[in-house]
Amino acid sequence: MAEFHVSVLAEQLSAAVAPAINAHPEAAVVDATCGAGGHTAAILGRGRPARVILIDRDPAALAHARTRLAGSACPLEFRHARFSELGKILDELQIPQISALIADVGVSSHQLDAGERGFSFRADAPLDMRMDPTRGQTVAELLATIEVGELAELLRRFGEEAEARRIAAAIVAARPETTGALASVVENAMSGRARRALGKRIHPATKTFQALRIFVNAELDELEALLEVGPQRLCVGGRMAVISFHSLEDRMIKRRFAALSRAPQVPRELPLTAAQLPKASYAVPAGFPRKGVQADEAERARNPRSRSARLRVIERVMP
Q1: Binding positions for S-adenosyl-L-methionine (predicted)?
Q2: pLDDT in tens, 38-73
Q3: Annotated binding residue at 121?
Q4: 159 carries a ligand binding annotation
Q5: 38 is an annotated ligand-binding site residue
Q6: Is 317:239 a contact under the CB 8 Å cutoff?
């Protein structure tokens, strides 16, 4: 039997969207990052949507999900695509609205554990880091030509790396082509004070790897596209649930959901009663924490990757 990674916050996510799915059994559900299918499996354990559209930019993830969900009684549609293609996919399938959209953004455990994919410094491999290995520029190709200033800005913006300039200069001087070489260059370039500040649990190259991965996969641009299109496709009562793993993603999700939850502004001088004032079309579901949900101690012990995870949910309450 195949072994599958435990999906982060699977119970909390499935519980958050179950009311929307069960209230609209005729509607489809979208899993925008199907991975190995763990979150969809959790959802199907709580209800029966009309069908589930499973999307992932990684062909290997789609293969894992097909295996895990084989034999499901619920109709499943698999699509090799990015977030920015969501609207096109739903149009092609003639699905104007959905009851729920879920996403677990960022790199997956499968990608990190597949050493040959070049996502992790734990195994020496060619510097690839593409979530979709069928297209796009690899990290090695990027580092072969990038200049110090551009790389430093990339490390600051996407990795929030305090020693970005110092690290960028060392990387450009060495032009590493493997994960091991890159990790070594970063570790040697970083000041002793910065290494001590990280402690023993965090590798000095963590932020650099994050920044390069986010850049070559255009992760934040893709997330922005998902946050724009996803809420628009929800039916009234539909819910969108997104799990993030670092502050860059979470800030984007938090700000977008907050903006959606604000009612349109009208001039104060207009003689409107409270009942006549425009209402927000979206809201955080009743009973769901506005700050989102994080893994409890038990889950953190079982699955260390869940330590930094945060789940945020928005519901469409008006057309």
Answers
A1: 37-39, 56, 83, 104, 111
A2: 999 999 999 999 999 999 999 999 999 999 999 999
A3: no
A4: no
A5: yes
A6: no
